[in-house]
Amino acid sequence: MRRKTDVTLPRRRAISRLLAATSHNMTIKHKLVLIIMLTCMATLIIAGGTFTGYEWKVLRQLMVINLSAQAEMLAEACKAAVAFEDAEDAKETLSSLKVGSSIVFGGIYNKDGELMSAYYRYGADRGVQPDSIREDGYEFKGDYLTVFKRIILDGDVMGTVCVRSDLEPLRGMLFSSFKIILIIVSVSLLAAYFISSGLQSVVSQPVVKLTELAKAISEGKDYAVRGVKVSNDEIGLLTDAFNEMLDEIQHRDQALVDANKELEEKVAERTADLEAMIEKLNNSNRQLQEFTYVASHDLREPLRKISAFGQLLVANLSDKLESDDRENLEFMIDGANRMQQMIEALLSYSRITTKGVDFEPVDLNEVVQELKSFELAVKLEETHAVLTVPEPLHHVNCDAAQVRQLLQNLIANGLKYQESGNIPHITICSGIQDDGMVRVEVQDDGIGIEKEQYESVFTMFRRIHTRQEYEGTGIGLAICKKIVERHGGEIGVSSVYGQGSTFWFTMPTALAAVNTRSQVDSGVAL
Amino acid sequence: MEETKPAVVLLVEDDPGDQKLVRYALRFQQHQSNLQIVGSGEEALEYLRQCKEDDESTPRPDIILLDLNMPGMGGKKFLQTMKADEQFCTIPVVVVSTSDSQQDIEESYRLHAAGYVQKSTSLDKLRRIIQKLTQYWFATSMLVRK
Questions:
Q1: Together in a domain, A305 and A413
Q2: How confident is the model at residue A1 (pLDDT cuts 50, 70, 90)?
Q3: Total structural domains in chain A?
Q4: Which chain B residues are closer than 8 Å to A293 by Cβ?
Q5: For the complex shown, is ipTM > 0.85?
Q6: What is the pTM of this model?
Q7: Would residue A218 count as lying in a domain?
Q8: DSSP code of residue B70
Q9: How far is CA A299 from CA A15, A127, A303, B13, B14, in A?
Q10: Is the CB of A308 inside 8 Å of chain B's CB atoms?
Q11: Do B122 and A309 touch (CB under 8 A)?
Q12: Which of A300, A309, A340 is nearest residue B17 as measured by Cβ atoms?
C-alpha cells in the first residue's frame, strides 16, 4: 500500500510523511480530526484566496470605471476653458475633484501636452503628477491608478485630462474582505472541528474497539471473545479477518490445552502406575529382606547343630571310630560349615542394599592403609605379599564401608589366587576417565583368568577352581559387582592367563575431597 | 568372694541342642558353675519369681545367658521386664544369639545387656567363648552376691 503511494503519488507521500512525523504518537481519533481540519483549512484558504483574487479584479475594474467617468466628466466640463486657454476656469472645473478623497491629482493639459491647470490633494507633493501624458486609457503604476481622457471639440483634440487616484479604497476593501474570509475560515474550522470530532468516531470507533479487543486478548489470553462488525468497509473486513484469526488461535489454543490435559492425565496415570510399581517393589524388597534375614538366621541354627554336634561326636568317639566313619563325619561337618559360610556370604550380599547409607567422599589411600593394618594384615604377613600404590589414589564418592569391602575382596583375591609358594605382588592405581568417573585397578601377578571366564567370575557361586585348589564360597566377586553397580559404576577384569589379572572398577569422583589429596600424598608411600 | 560356692548361671534358651552345648562347654571350664536352664522368657520370669521365695531349689542367678529368638515373649521382652525389676536388675545379662545384625546388638545394649556374643558353629570356638565369659564374669569382674 505504502509502496504504491511512494511510486504514484510523490507529493501525497511527502504530505503523508509530514503527517506521520507530526502525528506519530497521536491516537487515530486525533489523527482523523487533524486530517479533516487540515483538509477544511486548505479548502477554505483556496476558496478564500480565489474569492479575494476575483474581488481584487472586480474592484480594480470598478475603480477604472469610476475614475474614467470622472475624467470624462472633467473633459466635457473643461472644453471651453481649454478652447479659450482659460486656466482659472480650468482650475475651477478641477476643484470638483475635492469630493473624491482618494484622488491625489487631477490635471488639464493643452493640446501641446503642457499642464494648463492642476489639482493636488491636500498634503500631496508635486511628484504625484504623471511624468508624461498618454492617449485615452488607464494604467496601474506604483500605488496609483491613472486615467487619461482627451478633450475633443468638434472632432479636434484640444487637450488631455489626467486623473490619478491612490489604491487605498481597493486596499481597504481587500482588507475588510480578508477579515471576513478570516472570520469565515475560523468559524468554519471551528464548526469542522466539532463536526469531525463527532463524526470521526464512525471511522475510528471500530478501530479503537478492535485495538482494545486485541489488547484485552493479549493480556487476558481469552481467545473466546470476538470483535463486532459494524460496517462493510475495510475496518469491517479487518474485523472479519481478526475474528477469523481469533477462531484459528482459539482452535489451536484449545487443541494445545486438550493436548496438555491429555499429557497431564497420561503423566498422572504413569506416575500412579510407577508409584504403585515402586510400592510393590518396595514391598517385595522388604519381604525379600525379611526373607533373607529370617532364612539366613533360621537356616544357620540347624547347620550349627549339625556342625557342633558332629564335632562333639568326633571328640567323644575319637578313639572308638573307624577311620572311614571318622572321615564321613568330617565330610558332614565340613559340608555344614561350608553351607554356613555360603549363608553368611549370601547375607553379606543381601546387605549391600539393605545396609546402604548415603554416599560421602572417601579417600581410597586411607582405605588401603587401613586394610593393610587390619583386615588384610594377617594374610599379607602370611603370604609376604608386596602391596604397592605407586601414585596417590583419587578420591571417590561412595558408601565407605562398601568400598572398603570391595577393595578388600579384590586384594584378597589377588593374594589368594597365586601359585603356591609365590610371593604375590599387588599394585593399585587409579585415574580419571573421560566421563568423569574414577577408574581403580587392582593388578596381581597370580594365576590369571582365561578370557572365557571373564564374565562368569562375577556370577554368584560360580567357581572356576575346585575347593581343593582354592578355598572360597564364590560370592566375593559377585558382592564386588553389586557394590560397584550400586554406585553406578562398572567392574571388569583383564588377564594374561598364567601371568596375572587386573580387576578394575569405576566409581563417582569425590569433587569435594580432591583438594585434600596433597595432605595424604605423604601418607600413602607404600 | 566365696570361692567354694559356684556361680549360678541361668541359661534362657529354647533350643535343647544349644542348652546341651552350653552345658557341655561349661563342664570343661576351670571355674565351676551352677547351671540353671529355662526354655523361654516366661519361664525365666517364673524362675526369678520363685527365687524370692525359695533360694534352695531356685538359687538367685549371678549371671544370665540369654537367647533372643525364642517363642513367646522372646529374649528382648524378658530383658526389658527383668531390668525393670528392682531386685534383679543388677544381674548382668549376656546375650547369646545366632544373629549378628546391628539392630539386635544395639537393641540389646539399649536394654542394658552386659554383653553380646554370637553363637558359633565350631564347638571349639563355643568352648573358647564360654571360657572367656566365665573367666571374665567369675574371676575378673565382681558380681553382686546375695
A1: no
A2: very low
A3: 3
A4: 101
A5: no
A6: 0.47
A7: no
A8: -
A9: 104, 152, 7, 18, 16
A10: yes
A11: no
A12: A309
